[in-house]
Each structure stands twice: as C-alpha cells, then as structure tokens.
C-alpha cells in the first residue's frame, strides 16, 4: 500500500494522535486557542503506525537526500522516529537537546557527529518551527551541514512557513493539517460547518 499523506492522516485520526475540537478548542501553552491537538508520541504504542511513519520518512529522505550521512532526532518526540528511520537507512543517529546539558560534558548533541557531515533532522510536529530551527542552528554550529528537516505532521501555519524560508531550510512532512481535516470530513469525524471553523483557524490562529 502506498504511503500517502491521506493514509498517514487517517492513521493519526484512528489512534487519536490528532484530536479535533472546533467547537470546544484546546488551549496551547502559548495561550492560543486551537481546534486541534496533536500528540504524535502516541504513535509509539502502535507498531503498524510507527512502521508506516518510519518507512514513509525513510523513503522521502532517500529520494530527496541520497547523500545523507547522519539522521538526527529532536528531543524528545523526534528521537524514536529518528531511531527507526536510521535503522531502515542503516545510518548513524544523533539526537539534539533543546539546550546544552547543565552537567557532565554539557552536550547539546548526543552521539557522534563529525565536522562536515550531512544531516537530516527528524521532528514529530511542525507548528511555528521554533524548536526544530534551534536544532538546525545547533547542528550547524557543530560544523555539520543540515540538508533538510522531515516531520510527521505540519499545521502549515504561515508563521512556520516563513520561519523556514527565512533561514533557507527545506522542510517536508508526511501529512498536513489541510489534508487531515479533509480526511476527517470524509470519515464523518467533523461536519461541513466544523470544517469551515478549522479552515478559518489556520488563517489567523492568534485571533481565532
């Protein structure tokens, strides 16, 4: 079965890794009211789904970045997916903390990374892009080359798209908010009025 964006969206909805509540929105840590909550950590508990994700990410990486030398995972949610992908590609793996440790060697990057190596960074979710772009910066500061970022899911928010464009980093994902809400409509998880609410949120999340 081909690993399509629609299939990944269906699986995320099935296991409730993504929840939609357009009429009873969630509140993010930033204070933003959101009709969607995404917790891709739940995929770890579903071997079929995590295998689908790993195979999808590995295929995208092989196609887009055939010269990749190291797979990196962002701490913490990107780590298991990076491990499964690096195994499929038979490549070394590292992971990148949000900040350097305050003890021991004070590492921000764990694992072996040589100067000049070509890295693809795996994240679970792209929202504004802030956390993964910090990982990109840390990897570059370590002397490596970041070929691009791969993730399971993106909200496709204008702020996030702009952030990646500003630093010139390519990003690709297995599925997206737009595809997922259409799939949710197809399986009657939402109705047409709720679809309109979900579409309006993406245009301006802070004012929604």
TrEMBL record:
Annotated pathway: Pyrimidine metabolism; UMP biosynthesis via de novo pathway; UMP from orotate: step 1/2
Annotated signal peptide: none
GO molecular function, one term: magnesium ion binding
Catalytic reactions of this protein: orotidine 5'-phosphate + diphosphate = orotate + 5-phospho-alpha-D-ribose 1-diphosphate
Gene3D superfamilies named among the record's database cross-references: 3.40.50.2020
Purpose of the protein: Catalyzes the transfer of a ribosyl phosphate group from 5-phosphoribose 1-diphosphate to orotate, leading to the formation of orotidine monophosphate (OMP).
Family per similarity comment: Belongs to the purine/pyrimidine phosphoribosyltransferase family. PyrE subfamily.
Protein name in the entry: Orotate phosphoribosyltransferase
Species in which this protein is naturally found: Vagococcus fessus
Name of the encoding gene: pyrE
């Amino acid at each position: 079965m081909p690993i399509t964006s629609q299939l990944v969206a269906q699986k995320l909805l099935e296991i409730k890794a993504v929840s939609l509540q357009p009429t009873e929105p969630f509140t993010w840590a930033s204070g933003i009211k959101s009709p969607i909550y995404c917790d891709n950590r739940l995929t770890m508990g579903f071997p079929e789904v995590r295998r689908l994700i790993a195979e999808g990410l590995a295929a995208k990486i092989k196609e887009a970045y055939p010269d990749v030398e190291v797979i990196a995972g962002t701490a913490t949610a990107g780590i298991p997916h990076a491990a499964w992908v690096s195994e499929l590609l038979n490549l070394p793996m590292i992971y990148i903390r949000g900040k350097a440790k305050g003890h021991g060697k004070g590492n921000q990057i764990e694992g072996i990374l040589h100067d000049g190596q070509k890295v693809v960074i795996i994240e679970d979710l792209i929202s504004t892009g802030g956390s993964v772009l910090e990982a990109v910066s840390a990897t570059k500061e370590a002397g490596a080359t970041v070929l691009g970022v791969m993730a399971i899911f993106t909200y496709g928010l204008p702020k996030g798209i702009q952030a990646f464009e500003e630093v010139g980093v390519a990003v690709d994902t297995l599925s997206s908010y737009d595809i997922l809400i259409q799939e949710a409509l197809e399986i009657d998880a939402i109705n047409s009025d709720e679809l309109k609410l979900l579409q309006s949120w993406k245009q301006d999340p802070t004012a929604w």
